[in-house]
């Protein structure tokens, strides 16, 4: 096995070689490379498969108890500075290698079909391979300098992939927003690295942690300075993992292709920040103040992401805020010292979130031919519904990912999230309440997405050929009120109906709903209409019903109706494969009785990492489930509330909306909560006022000062010199008599001034004598 550890460099080099070879071919021979697009994809997948095989071999060796390996080569020697490059292999590294390579290869297989019709197919695989190689290099880095190099490569690749469709203005703006936001964090990270080197004199992670702990024990370092350096160091992972207040880039990152959204949110960019804090855990743990800041940042991020996710109508954006919330849990766990729970949740969340994002991509891929290729339509959950009927595999796997993320046993995220909740209550009651409430909100908004998307009845055909929408804000989301493009006459009648779709009458072509009593009245008869619950009754047949999901039927022909279709096998295979770890990987943290000792696989795996992490394994499985009752109860509470509002238990699906216009305390409360969710907690608006508008005002002020003060002084001197010269020019006649006259007058004036000055001085001396 020593040969395996010595050749660990193959893991990041394989995807890097794939990226460089295909990229150079695309640059120098674009037509030939594009004609071999499938071969380029196969090469990328094959080389990453080699890396995955080695990663699994490394993990198996670590499980068997092999010691930590560190391979180093000299890089720079300059006076007292010595820099080395190499690879660090420990349990944290091995688990991350398996997570990144396994999710990455499934994303590549999925992308082969998802991006098959895109002109940038080959370019996408170049970026994808480079992104994976950068993350693998970061995971294997043994020192801060090497981590920073790969850290910047990860940021560059995310910029390229988020802005992959750069011709779309929203995508171009999103990648710039992500790049600039991460530059703030990366600048803090760079300052923190330099500060830590100044304190400890080392870049090596293990050496600097040991030296720093010794300095703390011997009072050899200023705690204020140490905390400042640690907080600057924390800025980097806070931005990468979208932690408050540097989280604003993450929802807009959905402008990239869905496969890359899965990779960013599951195993690479967002996971990089959590991995970095876990890698530097020994260093941070020596500073209680910094650990407290980390825990509260994580708690606020988790709760903020969950509250904003309540009212999202965009499927991918809702999952993005879920991604913001779950790494918040991990940061909270790391801040309170629960290293084991954070590491476990990092792995379980990776597979669950990859499954959800790839499932959403399958849904979007099937919706695009029906509602159009604009993200505002193909990703809008208002246009979906009933997809499990047409896409059973996608719907079922999406349900599994939803159950896991909600923390429902026995799915993967239950085991890790429950442990975070228990440790949060032990650490602080405030953090415990935050984590507990976030778990309930997670159950609600995740099942809201599931019930509105795969469940119910399909609504996509009712939105075809519409060109104008009016948003109706609600605590549960933004529903759409549909205007007719043209007046539609169906058998001289208007039909009003609820948001539930129904069967089509093959004779008249009208829509009939088994769950609604529909009354059609002729235009010639008395105008009386049955309207959905929550709408005002009106005698005007042309009036738009605000609370109806689709208030007026359209003339829809049977032969023109389109329905979603299940994705092809290359997209379904990753979904089915990801469903396996979503179901089973959480069991690595389940306590079991072995040789008279209660233990679990995860604790045994992390035990060699350091002796500072201690996990009490005295409890058995029954005690574990008893302690998990509160966390499961709040998650199920959120699920049942969502089911009551959106599921078949409710009388009319989305009609039981809580109207934010309702008067009274609850009306004001729900109105505030609705606006809070819809406007992203007003944080984007606040940043717009402070940073964008503030920068513009400051720029205009500086421009005014420069133009009228600085340039005014210079220009004033120039203008006065000009006019003075012009005046003197007219005074020059070329006659000597005029010059002599001016000289005499000047001398007389000078003489008068001197006489007056002497008189004044003599008078002053006279008065001073007395």
Question: In terms of topology, how is this protein built?
Answer:
Layout: H1 2-6, H2 10-28, H3 30-35, H4 37-63, E1 69-78, E2 81-89, H5 91-114, H6 121-140, H7 144-162, H8 169-200, H9 205-217, H10 223-240, H11 249-252, H12 258-266, H13 269-279, H14 281-285, H15 288-308, H16 315-335, H17 339-371, H18 375-378, H19 387-390, H20 392-406, H21 412-427, H22 429-452, E3 469-474, E4 477-482, E5 493-494, E6 503-504, E7 511-512, E8 521-522, H23 569-584, E9 592-594, E10 597-599, H24 601-606, H25 621-627, H26 629-646, H27 665-678, H28 683-731, H29 736-769
Antiparallel strand pairs: 1-2, 3-4, 5-8, 6-7, 9-10
Helix pairs in contact: 2-4, 2-6, 4-5, 4-6, 5-6, 5-12, 5-17, 5-23, 6-7, 7-8, 8-9, 8-10, 10-13, 10-15, 12-17, 13-16, 13-17, 15-16, 15-22, 16-17, 16-21, 16-22, 17-20, 17-21, 17-23, 20-22, 20-23, 21-22, 22-26
Structural overview:
This protein has 770 residues and is mainly alpha-helical. It is 64% helix and 6% strand. Strands 1-2 form a two-stranded antiparallel sheet. Strands 3-4 form a two-stranded antiparallel ribbon. Strands 5-8 form a two-stranded antiparallel sheet. Helix 2 packs antiparallel against helix 6. It catalyses: a plastoquinone + NADPH + (n+1) H(+)(in) = a plastoquinol + NADP(+) + n H(+)(out); a plastoquinone + NADH + (n+1) H(+)(in) = a plastoquinol + NAD(+) + n H(+)(out). InterPro entries: NADH_UbQ_OxRdtase_chlpt_su5_C (IPR002128), NADHpl_OxRdtase_5_subgr (IPR018393), ND/Mrp_TM (IPR001750), NU5C-like (IPR003945), Proton_antipo_N (IPR001516). It is a multi-pass membrane protein. One of its GO terms (cellular component) is chloroplast thylakoid membrane.
